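Sequence in, structure out. Go.
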Amino acid sequence: MKVAFQGIKGAYSEQAAYRFYGRKIETVSFDSFEEVFQSVVSKAVDCGVVPVENTIAGSIVENYDLMLSNNTTVVAEVYQPICHCLLASANATLSMIKEVYSHPHALKQCKDFLKTHNITAQPLYDTAGAARQVAEWNRTDCAAIASELCAEIYNMLILADNIQSNSSNTTRFFIIAVNNQVPEGIQAEKTTIAFATKHAPGALVDALKIFQKYRLNLTRLESRPIPENPWEYVFYTDFEGGLNQPAAKEALDELRSQAAFVKILGSYAMGKKSGDP
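Output:
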């Protein structure tokens, strides 16, 4: 099985793919999220893994927009704990490290650790890229903040692990496939949709009341502007319930009768969060 992800080897997206499928898959890296979607739609790969939400940084809105504009569907969600490690070349020790390289978000998430050890933060384009760069330099005075997987791939030492200030840092990923290649037997427990309301007073409230009417618990609601239609918005919504459930079907039928448009982005099993049984 080929699974596409954005970034280079060792990225947290690749780690999420292994978390869901195991290590027997073949992962394929791409420079951009758009290329990941293109590879899925063209069937160059079997599926793709894309981040959609982080507990600290918030939503990755680009991927929601790409789901709206592409012929893909969400077949699973994966919650990947973000455990930042301080990685260095062989023979380095923590006391030797003067500079650390990583994505700006990772540097910010580990600022307390860096301050304690008087290490200067230097931003680079991504975490795995920083690990690869530091490994190539083979210096003992600099390190990278990246995943444990990067240590394995680039043969680096882990000088410290779980150095992020917030231990609950987690990214939610979607596994996406083309609409006509949805695996059989998916346990649909959660659904993600996009919809836009008509221009009428209380239109959004009326739409949300439909979910209340059918006792469907909304777990996420976010608005995004529609570039082609200035000052108009699309709402991305997650709710508990699968499309095979009568309440969900009836709610969506009623929503379609009121909304300007409705697109189902996927119906899938709930991913396990850290600490879930």
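Check: The two ends are 28 Å apart (CA to CA). The longest helix spans residues 246-258.
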